């Protein structure tokens, strides 16, 4: 059963995806120790949908995203995308699939070659995949720059001559060059100031609607994903624990981990955002706890939680939870959501502000500066 199955038919399905890394040395005939970065994750994304994948650092979000775009091979399970299937060992065979599904990295400064201009960075995938005839390449680069709200003249700039938000726009233009139908955005706005975050989120929203894209948006900040997601999938220690419509986890979180994440939602500090934390340490993915993986940190655990791994249960249309105690988790009290409201309302306000600006030529000029 796929977690949180969609109504309109999926463009992408991840089926029981797992990535186990061998760690340490194999000696005295002992079997290799495995780090279970992702340990059996299934979900669907519909055409034109934004699914956000959230969870603390190290829970396997990036690894999941990288398997979708074939940057890494799964250890088991497979991905179905636009009617094709790929899994362990099929990475090299699927150049055509990889063109249609692209990745936007967290740190555009690290992902852009410092010796390439923005124009060369955007033009590179066009020539690698022979997308447009050589003579028309610069016209296409200029179109892509304008599509992400940058002037054509920026084609001549090097990454160090761009701001963080402008670099991220170049990263998005580079991903769009191959005319994908699906983009995985891995913490694409985490490194940016809150106001620049809102601009880039706005851009992604606009592009999604204009180009009919589907997005997997990876983030640790629930307040950010709230405004751009159709559904949210919460991940813990290599597994999904809750999948629901975007409004649902905020009003009615049923997994104690989602609840803890909401309680720990980051607060803006001088325009930047502090990382979210949940009490206690995340156990090692080399030796995950038996039963429910969250039980070692769960305030609601009972005996069964340590013994039996809970199955993912559909508790309402589109709302799936893997927890023995979900019935006992009350909706968040208003007071508990105060931190979310402050930060989230700020992003919401900024999104509205930038939408207004984008509507006028003068506003667009201001946003580019
Ligand atoms: N190449 C690798 N070899 C061994 N372990 C790895 C490798 N890549 C990731 N891991 C481990 O897999 C686990 C999941 O990592 P991943 O980067 O997917 O988490 P994440 O949720 O994206 O975290 P973050 O938000 O910090 O990026 C972590 O424990 C990480 O240390």
UniProtKB/TrEMBL annotation:
Question: Which InterPro entries does the UniProt entry name for this protein?
Answer: AAA+_ATPase (IPR003593), ABC_transp_ATP-bind (IPR050319), ABC_transporter-like_ATP-bd (IPR003439), ABC_transporter-like_CS (IPR017871), Oligopep_ABC_C (IPR013563), P-loop_NTPase (IPR027417)
Main location per the UniProt record: membrane
- Which spans of this chain does the record mark as coiled coil? none
Please provide, in alphabetical order, the Gene Ontology terms of the cellular component aspect for this entry.
Answer: plasma membrane
> What is its membrane topology?
Peripheral membrane protein
Give the subcellular location: Cell inner membrane
Q: Offer one Pfam family short name for this entry.
A: oligo_HPY
Annotated keywords: ATP-binding, Nucleotide-binding, Transport
In which family does this protein belong, per the annotation? Belongs to the ABC transporter superfamily.
Report what the protein is called.
ABC transporter domain-containing protein
Gene source species: Bradyrhizobium retamae
């Amino acid at each position: 059963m796929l977690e949180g199955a969609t109504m309109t038919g999926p463009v992408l399905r991840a089926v029981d995806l797992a990535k186990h890394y061998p760690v340490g040395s194999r000696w005295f005939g002992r079997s290799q120790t495995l780090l279970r970065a992702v340990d059996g994750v299934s979900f669907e994304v519909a055409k034109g949908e934004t699914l956000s994948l959230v969870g603390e650092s190290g829970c396997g979000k990036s690894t999941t995203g990288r398997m979708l775009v074939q940057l890494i091979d799964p250890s088991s399970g497979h991905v179905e995308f636009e009617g094709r299937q790929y899994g362990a060992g099929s990475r090299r065979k699927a150049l055509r699939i990889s063109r249609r599904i692209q990745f936007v990295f967290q740190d555009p400064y690290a992902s852009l070659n410092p010796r390439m201009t923005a124009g060369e960075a955007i033009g590179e995938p066009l020539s690698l995949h022979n997308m447009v005839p050589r003579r028309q390449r610069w016209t296409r680069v200029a179109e892509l720059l304008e599509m992400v709200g940058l002037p054509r003249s920026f084609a001549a700039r090097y990454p160090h001559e761009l701001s963080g938000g402008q670099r991220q726009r170049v990263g998005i233009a580079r991903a769009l060059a191959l005319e994908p139908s699906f983009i995985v955005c891995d913490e694409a706005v985490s490194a940016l100031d809150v106001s620049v975050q809102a601009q880039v989120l706005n851009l992604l929203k606009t592009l999604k609607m204009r180009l009919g894209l589907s997005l997997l948006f990876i983030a640790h900040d629930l307040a950010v994903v709230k405004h751009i997601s159709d559904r949210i999938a919460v991940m813990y220690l290599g597994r999904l624990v809750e999948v629901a419509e975007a409004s649902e986890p905020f009003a009615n979180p049923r997994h104690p981990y989602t609840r803890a994440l909401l309680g720990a939602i980051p607060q803006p500090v001088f325009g930047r955002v502090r990382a979210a934390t949940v009490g206690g340490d995340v156990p090692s993915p080399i030796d995950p706890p038996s039963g429910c993986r969250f039980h070692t940190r769960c305030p609601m655990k009972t005996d069964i939680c340590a013994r039996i791994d809970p199955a993912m249960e559909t508790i309402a249309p589109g709302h799936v939870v893997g927890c023995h105690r979900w019935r006992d988790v009350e909706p968040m009290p208003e007071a508990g959501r105060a931190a979310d409201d402050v930060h989230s309302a700020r992003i919401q306000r900024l999104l509205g502000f930038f939408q207004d600006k984008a509507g006028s030529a003068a506003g667009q000029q201001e946003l580019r500066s």
